């Protein structure tokens, strides 16, 4: 492994790794569990600003503290103010209107993964069926994909019912394989999910390359798989929910890092120790996703932080106006990599590129050599990631370079967010074993937007004494002592790709 440039404030110039002759299966790209049991607290100072966070710099919610001093006591303390923590607070209020809630955020409000993603709520409806079936069986694989559909529907319904201004787009997302081998793998997975009994009537399939290229506008498209999904401005959605929470009595404390949770003297159960003092409470909800192992060491190696890049691209005139992209995409590459594309076609037309492209795999390898960078969301403008975005766009988007690229157009910015890798690829929802009153909803493996709108209310149901079956969540999401022990004793966890 070699590095060109070094981690510093402002970003990494380039990260490279030696070539490998091994060709990864499309389902296993960039999914190997990290060698180190990495953990860490959110970066304080020098973190990059996502496009979403750039848009809200004058919003007072960013550094909101409901009370000048940290409350010394509460019924429930929620650690994390992203979509999970904010939704847990919402459903907690609905369940126990009179109980006191404090939400702790180590930095600005919603400045973790939710405020840094590529802006998708895309329910997986077929593509990961084969790997999910291999890891958990066909029944659970189908339940996971059904749950993601229900999660998407719940998010869209909430936005519409409440008139949330968050740039919501609802339309067809398109998965597009770009070579014959990948198209063949896609076709076999789609046949497998139909054989397993899934309802695929809502998925449009085009297998003729000429028609696929016409529909997708990608020159080398070999097929298309299209189904309903959404894109949105995630920070604005979560901010809307949190403002409603605050009106109902939630106490939000930004710039307050939870350091540990220890036993409290009777009659309360727990003390949440922070850098601004302690809070004593009965219930603690861990909603920090990638950072959870820093506060709860028993989850070290179970949920692991990993930097992931998102590129902001301003399209040239040849791909703007009436010629702008009108769908979101998953572009499936020959070596098993993936580009996700969010064109923000109901708002400003800026195109977001996420996913695990070959440059992201190189960044992953680099972080393995520099585990101290595992929670570094100060990375920006990493050329070794951006160059693959640029090459794909210029190769597949006909006419992208027909006109001179002017100032303000092109590949102007990228930023990092921290994904919470789950040891078995699916989230952990439920009580923390051996610690009555502590609860977890974390480890969303880069796919939290398609899970949290059902996972968070499901967790609150469990806190209220309801059974797992009453949550409606897939069984494999349940946090149990047996699951943790199995993962800690496993020589290799099931490989479940980052979406």
Automatic annotation (TrEMBL):
Q: Name one GO cellular component term.
A: cytoplasm
Give all residue intervals belonging to the FAD dependent oxidoreductase domain. Answer: 75-451
- Residues covered by region (Disordered): 1-25
Superkingdom of this protein's organism: Eukaryota
UniProt name for this protein: DAO-domain-containing protein
Could you tell me which Pfam families the record lists for this protein? DAO
Q: Which PANTHER family match?
A: FAD DEPENDENT OXIDOREDUCTASE DOMAIN-CONTAINING PROTEIN, SARCOSINE DEHYDROGENASE-RELATED
């Amino acid at each position: 492994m070699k590095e060109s440039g070094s981690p510093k404030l402002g970003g990494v110039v380039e990260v490279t790794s030696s070539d490998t002759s091994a060709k990864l299966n499309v389902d296993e790209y960039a999914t190997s569990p990290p060698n180190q049991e990495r953990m860490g607290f959110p970066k304080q100072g020098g973190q990059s600003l996502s496009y979403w966070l750039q848009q809200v710099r004058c919003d007072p919610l960013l550094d909101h503290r409901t009370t000048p001093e940290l409350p010394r006591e509460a019924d429930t303390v929620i650690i994390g103010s992203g979509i999970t923590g904010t939704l847990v607070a919402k459903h907690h209020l609905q369940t126990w209107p009179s109980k006191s809630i404090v939400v702790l955020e180590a930095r600005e409000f919603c400045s973790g993964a939710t405020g840094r993603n590529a802006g998708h709520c895309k329910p997986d409806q077929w593509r990961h069926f084969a790997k999910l079936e291999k890891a958990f069986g066909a029944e659970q694989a189908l339940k996971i994909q059904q749950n993601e559909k229900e999660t998407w529907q719940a998010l869209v319904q909430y936005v519409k019912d409440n008139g949330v201004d968050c740039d919501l787009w609802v339309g067809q997302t398109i998965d597009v394989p770009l070579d014959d081998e990948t198209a063949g793998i896609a076709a076999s997975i789609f046949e497998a999910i139909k054989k397993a009994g899934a309802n695929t009537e809502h998925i449009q399939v085009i297998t003729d390359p000429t028609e696929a290229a016409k529909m997708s506008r990608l020159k080398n498209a070999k097929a298309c798989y299209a189904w309903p999904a959404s894109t949105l401005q995630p920070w604005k959605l979560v901010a809307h929910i949190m403002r409603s929470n605050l009106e109902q009595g939630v106490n939000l404390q930004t710039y307050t890092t939870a350091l540990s949770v220890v036993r409290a003297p009777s009659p309360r159960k727990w003390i949440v120790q922070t850098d601004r003092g302690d809070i004593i409470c009965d219930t603690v909800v861990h909603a920090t996703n990638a950072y959870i192992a820093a506060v709860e060491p028993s989850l070290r190696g179970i949920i692991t932080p990993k930097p992931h890049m998102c590129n902001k691209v301003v399209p040239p005139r040849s791909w703007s106006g009436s010629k702008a992209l009108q769908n979101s995409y998953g572009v499936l590459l020959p070596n098993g990599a993936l580009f996700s594309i969010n064109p923000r076609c109901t708002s400003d037309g800026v195109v977001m590129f996420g996913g695990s492209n070959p440059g992201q795999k190189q960044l992953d390898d680099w972080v393995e050599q520099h585990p101290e960078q595992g929670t570094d969301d100060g990375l920006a403008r990493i050329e070794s990631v951006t160059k693959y975005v640029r090459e794909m766009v210029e190769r597949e988007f006909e006419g992208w370079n027909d006109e001179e690229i002017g100032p303000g157009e092109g590949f102007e910015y990228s930023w990092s967010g921290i994904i919470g890798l789950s040891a078995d690829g699916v989230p952990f929802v439920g009580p923390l074993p051996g610690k009555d009153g502590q609860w977890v909803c974390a480890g969303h493996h880069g796919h939290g937007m398609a899970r949290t709108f059902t996972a968070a209310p499901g967790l609150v149901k469990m806190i209220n004494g309801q059974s797992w079956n009453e949550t409606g969540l897939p069984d494999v999401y349940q946090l149990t002592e047996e699951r943790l022990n199995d993962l800690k004793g496993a020589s290799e966890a099931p490989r479940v790709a980052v979406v």
